[in-house]
């Protein structure tokens, strides 16, 4: 990856909730068209770090951040940033599928309508179809676009949420344990989907599932107690971690 343009550059990131420091001097570059897996034990700061990348932590009043995050060399925390545009460019998929209580079509169209105001039904239809195809869901829902998104299975709902993010044409997709409530077959479908998507997007996924990290990620970042202990290419990190703490975590000897 060296020499390639950096998509996201996080430098000297320290973060607190009230008095509790939860991120400790994180430095991490993320590249275009890669899948980066963030791994580490519960409470080590994975979700907090992910949410820093599109400023979702802003919603938490006790949260405070120091350091710099650049996306395409633009400072995400600068005063005059357009937050809606940032979150369109850097989209987020959450742990539990969270379709809105509206039709499948409207779920996917939601963000497009929000950002574009009035758009023609035909144009919207094309965008919705493209996003659902990209999310590998089109064939299962094309005949029932007007039924509620809540009527889908968990795995379908998660793909619907991915389609909703893709519809606004992001460049980065953040996923926080997107498969933790899904069965193995649905998980496999999402993993396949992410492999396809990485040709067009930068993907950062938090996962507790080391098998998943091994199967889909190009690089891994191991967090422990708010520190980034080690990061590198997935294959070499799994075979030969540099740090003892990483080795202990990977071999299940942690704690
Ligand atoms: N909204 C919040 N307010 C206060 N403290 C928080 C908040 N969110 C997280 N924390 C604390 O920050 C630390 C890091 O939490 P975070 O959710 O980032 O961990 P994580 O690595 O994602 O854990 P998990 O694997 O369980 O999801 C934890 O000590 C947690 O209790
Ligand atoms: Mg988390």
Question: What does this molecule look like?
Answer:
This protein has 255 residues and is α/β, with parallel strands linked by helices. It has a single domain, classed as Rossmann fold (3-Layer(aba) Sandwich), CATH 3.40.50. It is built from ten helices and ten strands. The strands form two sheets. The protein has a six-stranded mixed beta sheet, sandwiched between helices. A four-stranded antiparallel beta sheet has the order 2-1-4-5, covered by helices on one side. Strand 9 and strand 10 form a beta hairpin. The protein is globular, with a radius of gyration of 18 Å. Bound molecules: adenosine-5'-triphosphate (ATP) and magnesium ion (MG).
What proportion strand? 25-35%
Round the mean pLDDT to the nearest integer and report it: 94
H-E order: EEEHEEHEHHHHEHEHEEHH
CATH class: Alpha Beta
In short:
The chain has 255 residues and is of the alpha/beta class. The chain has helices spanning 46-52, 83-89, 104-116, 121-134, 138-141, 154-167, 184-197, 210-216, 234-239, 244-250; strands at 8-17, 20-30, 35-39, 63-71, 74-75, 90-93, 172-176, 202-206, 219-224, 227-233. The longest helix is centred in the middle third of the chain and has 14 residues, at 121-134.
């Amino acid at each position: 990856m060296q020499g390639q343009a950096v998509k996201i550059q996080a430098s000297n990131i320290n973060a607190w909730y009230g008095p509790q420091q939860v991120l400790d001097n994180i430095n991490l570059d993320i590249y275009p068209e890669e899948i980066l897996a963030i791994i580490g034990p519960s409470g080590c700061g994975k979700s907090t770090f992910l949410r820093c990348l599109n400023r979702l932590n802003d919603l938490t009043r006790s949260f405070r951040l120091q350091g710099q995050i650049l996306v395409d060399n633009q400072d995400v925390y600068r005063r005059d940033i357009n937050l809606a545009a940032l979150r369109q460019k850097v989209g987020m998929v959450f742990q539990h599928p969270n379709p809105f209580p509206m039709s499948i079509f409207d779920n996917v169209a939601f963000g497009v309508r929000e950002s574009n105001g009035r758009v023609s039904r035909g144009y919207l239809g094309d965008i919705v179809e493209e996003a659902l195809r990209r999310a590998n869901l089109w064939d299962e829902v094309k005949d029932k676009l007007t039924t509620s998104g809540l009527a889908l299975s968990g795995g379908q709902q998660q793909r619907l949420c991915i389609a909703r993010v893709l519809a606004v044409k992001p460049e980065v997709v953040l996923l926080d344990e997107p498969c933790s409530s899904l069965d193995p077959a649905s998980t496999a479908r999402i993993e396949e989907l992410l492999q396809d998507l990485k040709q067009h997007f930068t993907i950062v996924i938090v996962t507790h599932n080391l098998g998943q990290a091994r199967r889909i990620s190009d690089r891994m970042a191991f967090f422990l107690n708010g520190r980034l202990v080690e990061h590198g290419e997935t294959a070499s990190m799994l075979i030969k971690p540099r740090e003892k703490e990483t080795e202990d975590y990977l071999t299940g000897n942690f704690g």
